[in-house]
Specification:
CATH architecture of one domain: 2-Layer Sandwich
Radius of gyration: 63 Å
Helix content: 40-55%
Strand content: 15-25%
Oligomer: single chain
Bound molecules: adenosine-5'-diphosphate, magnesium ion
Largest sheet: 6 strands, antiparallel
CATH class of one domain: Alpha Beta
Number of strands: 19
């Protein structure tokens, strides 16, 4: 505009601005005002010299370079500049009157034209707007920060609650394997922390029914243990099973009951198998389940899942343990039975042998009785002196035979007694040789006529032992030795004395023991004699007895023929 005005005559400019809202001042060559339009007069009054208003101006926004910014007064600038000048200035008449003026000046025909337009409203509008916008921005920022802060606070609180809850449940889990207690704690603590109306845990039974076990009733502030199958199991199951794979929780409102409280159902899943569900009914005042609450419950559910699984494994282990204990007991019973049967077998052998041994002398006594009767009958028929002498000789001989037979029976009975030591089963000082001899006498029927027995006895001390048990060892080994000799052969029994132990070696000239069997012959049940003949227990019992006496027993094959059993026993 000033560019176009510049080319107009002064009068035209004055005319143009006479009634304008913009302020017009015209200064003469001496820079004294010669014209002020109405608007200018309104603001400045009827001024004669420009200096009267000069000090009311100050730069607001100016196009000058920065260094000069504070020192210059726009009016002075106008007076100094002959060229076009344009700036924005602040005009302050008194403390209340502030105007933002846009100031332009130029020279026309030696005169200075000053046009001022009041831009106060515009500027204030702009600054108000920008202030408003800035404030809004600040508020927005503050609100955002506030929200973030309260979110953070909430998160911290939830985290604290969550940590507390999880700690309680984990402590329970660590404390032991009582899964009922763990579940109870979880249901109770979740219910208390989240302030729900009701919470429960239900186990999923094999038939897919839900068995509600742990119920926390908030109204009663107590934990009640029930054991019922949940009535609306289908809806619940459907929900929990549908979420089986994803493992997520479901919120449902049970329309059947008309209860508007949202119910949260969280499945407890281990290895894709739903073990049970946690269900919580929100307090009446709450209409929604918060994501944080759901994720908290899900966290606990996953802890419970591994605890339940652990408890399951533990129970299985316990079951296996008791199964094993039962099996062990049965095994022990079977072993006792077997030992008993081996005892019966050796007893049978013993009785057969003894019966045989006793039968022979009894047989001769019987037939001698016939002779007695015949002799006595003859004597009663008044025989001749010659006949009488003959009969009494017969009687004499018969009596001798009888007393031999009775002696034999006696010695067998004595050997039997000695062997069994029924009267003295206790631990005592014993003559080992006596035991060996008695045993030999009792198995005489096995030996007689085919096996030569060689005794090489050292001068042994008495040793402390259970004599009847050691006799059983001798019997087992000697019978095995007899059985290993098919037809004829020999058994050598050798005893040796050492400083603190004695050694008994029983060798036979039998068939020997195959090398691969040597390490098994002492195993219970190992036999090469076929079912019904051998029990395979004889040597295992010998092994146990010698072990009980703190001695050793071993077998080896002889270089030439047969095998040798070597027993070592401590003297004390
Ligand atoms: N003197 C021996 N000579 C050869 N083999 C023997 C002898 N003693 C034991 N054995 C072997 O050891 C096995 C186990 O013996 P044992 O425990 O007494 O059971 P059983 O006599 O009932 O078979 C016998 O079946 C036999 O094969
Ligand atoms: Mg045997």
């Amino acid at each position: 505009m000033p560019e176009t005005l510049k080319n107009l005559p002064i009068e035209s400019i004055i005319n143009l601005y006479k009634t304008s809202e913009e302020l017009l001042l015209v200064l003469d060559a001496e820079k004294n005002p010669i014209f002020l339009n109405k608007s200018a007069k309104n603001l400045f009054g009827d001024i004669k010299k420009i200096t009267e208003i000069e000090h009311f101006f100050s730069f607001n926004v100016c196009i000058l370079d920065r260094e000069k910014f504070f020192d210059y007064n726009p009016i002075q600038e106008i007076l100094n500049f002959n060229t076009l000048f344009s700036a924005e200035t602040l005009f302050q008449l008194d403390s209340n009157l502030y105007r933002n003026l846009n100031i332009r000046s130029f020279s026309v025909q030696n005169k200075k034209i000053i046009i001022l337009s009041d831009v106060t409203e515009k500027i204030q509008n702009i600054s108000l707007k920008s202030l408003l916008a800035e404030t809004e921005k600040a508020i927005e920022k503050l609100e955002k920060e506030n929200k973030e802060f309260s979110e953070l606070k909430e998160k911290a609180q939830t985290l604290a609650i969550r940590t507390g809850l999880i700690n309680k449940v984990s402590n329970k889990i660590r404390d032991g394997f009582d899964i009922e207690e763990i579940i109870q704690t979880a249901v109770e603590e979740i219910s208390k922390t989240l302030g729900v109306s009701q919470g429960f845990y239900a186990e999923i039974l094999n038939n897919k029914e839900l068995s509600v076990k742990h119920v926390w009733a908030a109204e009663k502030k107590e934990y009640i243990k029930v054991n019922k199958i949940y009535p609306d199991k289908d809806a619940l199951l459907k929900n929990s099973l549908e979420n089986k794979v994803s493992g997520t929780s479901t919120v449902i409102i049970d329309n059947n009951t008309g209860d508007s409280r949202p119910k949260l159902i969280t499945p407890i899943i281990y290895n894709n198998e739903v073990l049970g569900i946690l269900s919580f009914l929100h307090a009446a005042s709450k209409k929604h389940w918060h994501t944080e609450e759901i994720s908290l419950i899900e966290g606990i559910a996953s802890q419970l899942a591994s605890a339940i699984n652990q408890a399951k494994l533990f129970n299985e282990l316990e079951e296996q343990k008791s199964d094993l204990e039962k099996a062990l007991l049965e095994l022990k019973q079977a072993q006792t039975q077997l030992i008993q049967s081996e005892k019966m077998a050796s007893l049978g052998q013993l009785v057969a042998g003894v019966a045989h041994e006793i039968n022979t002398p009894i047989g001769s006594i019987k037939s001698n009785n016939d002779i007695f009767i015949k002799c006595i009958q003859k004597i009663q028929t008044s025989p001749t002196e010659e006949e009488m002498k003959n009969y009494s000789e017969i009687l004499d001989d018969t009596l001798k035979v009888n007393s031999e037979a009775i002696k034999r029976i006696n010695s067998i009975v004595k050997a039997l007694k000695n062997f069994a030591r029924l009267d003295e089963a206790e631990y005592k000082e014993t003559d080992i040789h006596e035991g060996i001899k008695s045993t030999l006498m009792l198995i005489n029927h096995e030996i007689k006529g085919r096996i030569q027995v060689i005794e090489e006895f050292d001068n042994l001390p008495f040793i402390n032992c259970y004599p009847n048990q050691l006799n059983q060892v001798f019997m087992n080994i000697l019978i095995n030795a007899c059985q290993s000799i098919k037809k004829d052969g020999a058994i050598k029994i050798k005893t040796e004395k050492f400083a603190d132990k004695i050694k008994i070696l029983i060798s036979d000239t039998g068939k020997g023991i195959p090398e691969k069997h040597l390490e098994h012959i002492f195993d219970p049940g190992f036999t090469t004699k076929g079912v019904g003949i051998g029990t395979g227990l004889g040597l295992s019992i010998c092994y146990q007895i010698i072990q009980k006496h703190k001695g050793t027993i071993k077998a080896e094959n002889n270089p030439d023929q047969g095998s040798t059993f070597i027993i070592e026993l401590p003297v004390k």
